Amino acid sequence: MDWMKFKNIYFAISGIVIALGVFSLIKWGLTFGVDFSGGSVIEYRLKSSVTETELTETLNKEGINLTSVQNTTGSTYLFRLPPISEETKNKIDDVLKKKYKEVDGLRFEVVGPTVGPELIKKTIVALLVSSCAILFWVAFQFKSIKFGASAILAMFHDSVVLVGTYSLLGHFYGAEVDFLFVTAALTILSFSVHDTIVVFDRVREINKRSGRNLGGLKGTVNIALTETMVRSLNNSFTILFMLLALILLGGTTIKWFAVALFIGTVSGTYSSPFVAVPILVTWDEVASKIKPKKNFFKK
């Protein structure tokens, strides 16, 4: 199958998704959770058995928006909210006592952000250093800077898609950026590069074992994608089924963490064959026109 015949369509799809995300980021930005913006923490002990989802819905009906609810022990619950006044805290007490009768307030405090500017700066520097290391390592292994740059661009593509989509979810559904989101974003970077290297490695294998003219890099890539597509889809679907179960059944605490992983997995599965590879082929075509060469690998 000639996968690269439709590379402009692949680029158009990615461009539309990224444009929507960038528009959302510019217009609405990201909704930061307590980890980034600080907030209030309240701890209660309830006599009756209650789920986190039920507690969230009970307070939402009263106009009180919770960042998260965590069942720390069998009967103790930790509420995280934006900074609230003593009056709002008393309102929460009244709502819970009216609904669940015996309720003991164990703790109420206002906390600052746990992620400071210095930590954010160090994280960005670490990402840049690791990205450069991946770029040069992939380029060294595949004997071409094109492979390393294509892998890194696909990785950044997944990051932009995830952040942009999360901005939309934050505006319309209240999804917040917290430690779990950062964890999901870093996990997706690894998944994206790993899947891309699988395709690139098959391109290299085909080029080494084939003694016939496959039509240059484009022809080799089409064969590689045909041979790896089923493997990639099967691998991704096993992850997506698990994440879908977490989204539907995992409760409010890890719901948005699973959503972030789900978005990143879909984007990573798409970007490996339909972003990284088309970038590689397009780059090779442009470079060939500027400076024709016999082969895209060094023998």
Choose one word for the global shape.
elongated
Beta content:
5-15%
Q: What helical percentage do the residues reach?
A: 55-70%
Strand order of the largest sheet: 2-3-1-4
E-strand count: 4
Ends distance: 27 Å
Rounded to an integer, what's the Rg over CA atoms?
A: 24 Å
Uncertain runs? none
The class by helix and strand makeup works out as alpha+beta
CATH topology of the largest domain: Multidrug efflux transporter AcrB transmembrane fold
Tell me the count of domains: 2
CATH superfamily membership of the largest domain = Multidrug efflux transporter AcrB transmembrane domain
Number of helices: 9
Along the chain, the helix and strand elements come as HHEHEEHEHHHHH
Mean pLDDT: 86
- CATH architecture identity of the largest domain: Up-down Bundle
Summarize the main sheet.
4 strands, antiparallel
- CATH class of the largest domain reads Mainly Alpha
Pfam families: Sec_GG (PF07549), SecD_SecF_C (PF02355)
Protein name: Protein-export membrane protein SecF
Subunit structure: Forms a complex with SecD. Part of the essential Sec protein translocation apparatus which comprises SecA, SecYEG and auxiliary proteins SecDF. Other proteins may also be involved.
Family: Belongs to the SecD/SecF family. SecF subfamily.
